[in-house]
């Protein structure tokens, strides 16, 4: 057995060393000099240092392409059209591309390096994305693994639509030697232009979440970039069926308070299903229950997937959130106005909810979602 394992392990070790050597040689021996990046047929022209990924190169020039994963190539968000021949699509890009995008040479900006003059196309709205400095006004525990980060913006206010997200800039700390960014939905109200609120769940080994949970403190100054995203309320009379778990609460908190505060989309009935494992994973329960009791068109349905003990006194639903959703769609929610689905959470949760919604005659093109990268 040891001989069987030794061969593959040795090959893997040599491959890793070679990849590291190539990366070091590329960084230190290849001096690409200045390059020109032409954007949208020359509407913008940038002179930049060559050799770095296009995503970071553009960000250094104040052009922020959305990237939920901070440039790791794991979200597929940083798509742009590259008119220059930069070679075939990389294996790290292909999982995020449909055939039409490959044909049009849509690329991931985090995977393309600026090693020659480039011509690219970007959506015009990206030119209005800004970087904001902010002070940590409060940082409090909502559960044992979710913190509410409330930031006061310095100098300028932010305009955003409920459901959009920001990228939090994480500076070097500890063994982390480079700055990175991670995307988080805003849970704050669009009417408060001087503050943004983010809900951040601790992910074991996560660069950004560890920094927020273990290192960040009240009074610190941070940077955020945005707003980004198209996860927004659609202006139709269809009933909103919202499902989330954990920090997926964030965009719905923003949407609900915006609609309640402004009276927006007055024809919409709203059903919000929030799934948690146990009561210690539930937060904002009192706030949303009160909102449900005082706002006739809003219905809040929290559910625990683990059976609570009698001593806990749980009065809500019990079961997997998909099962609870299925029961309500089949017999408890008026179908006369039709449905729209709004989902935020892990890919597994979202895929399971989509199946339930389609089973209950909800059109797939009426299901909108934000998947966690």
List its traits:
alpha/beta, disordered N terminus, 17 strands, 26% helix, Rossmann fold, 3 domains, 373 residues, single chain, 6-stranded antiparallel sheet, Ubiquitin-like (UB roll), Elongation Factor Tu (Ef-tu), domain 3
Polypeptide structure, described:
The protein is an alpha/beta fold and 373 residues long. It has 3 domains: 32-125, Beta-grasp domain (Ubiquitin-like (UB roll)); 129-228, Beta Barrel (Elongation Factor Tu (Ef-tu), domain 3); 239-371, Rossmann fold (3-Layer(aba) Sandwich). 26% of the residues lie in helices and 28% in strands. The protein has 8 helices and 17 strands. It has helices at residues 2-28, 54-60, 99-103, 207-215, 249-262, 285-294, 321-331, 347-359; strands at 34-39, 44-49, 79-82, 106-108, 118-121, 130-141, 146-153, 165-170, 180-185, 195-201, 221-228, 239-245, 270-276, 298-304, 317-318, 339-345, 367-371. A 6-stranded antiparallel beta sheet has the order 9-8-11-6-7-10. β6 and β7 (146-153) form a beta hairpin. α7 packs parallel to α8 (347-359).
Counted by DSSP, the helix tally is: 8
Fraction in helix: 25-40%
CA-based shape: globular
Give the C-alpha Rg: 23 Å
CATH superfamily (homologous) name of the largest domain: Nucleotide-binding domain of ferredoxin-NADP reductase (FNR) module
């Amino acid at each position: 057995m040891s001989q069987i394992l030794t061969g593959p392990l040795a090959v893997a070790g040599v491959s890793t060393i070679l990849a590291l050597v190539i990366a070091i040689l590329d960084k230190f021996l290849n001096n690409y000099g200045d390059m020109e990046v032409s954007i949208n047929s020359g509407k913008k022209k940038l002179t930049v240092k060559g050799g770095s990924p296009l995503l970071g190169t553009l960000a250094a020039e104040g052009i922020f392409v959305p990237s939920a994963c901070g440039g790791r190539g794991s979200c597929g968000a940083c798509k742009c059209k590259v008119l220059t021949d930069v070679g075939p699509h990389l294996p790290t890009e292909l999982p995020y591309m449909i055939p039409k995008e490959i044909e049009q040479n849509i690329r991931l900006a985090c995977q393309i390096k600026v090693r020659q003059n480039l011509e690219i196309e970007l959506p015009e709205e990206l030119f209005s994305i800004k970087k904001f400095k902010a002070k940590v006004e409060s940082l409090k525990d909502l559960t044992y693994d979710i913190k509410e980060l409330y930031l006061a913006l310095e100098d300028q206010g932010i305009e955003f639509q409920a459901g959009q997200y920001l990228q939090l800039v994480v500076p070097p700390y500890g063994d982390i030697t480079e700055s990175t960014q991670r995307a988080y939905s805003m849970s704050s109200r669009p009417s408060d232009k001087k503050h943004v609120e983010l809900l951040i769940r601790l992910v074991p080994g996560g660069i950004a979440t560890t920094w927020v949970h273990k290192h960040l403190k009240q009074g610190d100054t941070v940077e955020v970039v945005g707003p980004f995203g198209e996860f927004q309320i659609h202006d139709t009379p269809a009933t909103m069926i919202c499902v989330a778990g954990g920090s997926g609460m964030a965009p719905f908190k923003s949407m609900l308070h915006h609609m309640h505060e402004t009276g927006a989309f007055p024809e919409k009935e709203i059903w919000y299903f929030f799934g948690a494992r146990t009561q210690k994973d539930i937060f904002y329960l009192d706030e949303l229950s009160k909102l449900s009791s005082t706002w006739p068109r809003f219905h809040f349905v929290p559910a625990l997937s683990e059976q609570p003990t009698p001593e806990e006194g749980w009065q809500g639903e019990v079961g997997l959130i998909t099962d609870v959703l299925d029961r309500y769609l089949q017999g408890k929610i008026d179908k006369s106005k039709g449905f729209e689905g709004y989902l935020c959470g892990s890919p597994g949760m979202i895929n399971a909810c989509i199946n339930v919604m389609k089973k209950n005659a909800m059109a797939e093109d009426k299901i909108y979602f934000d998947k966690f990268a």
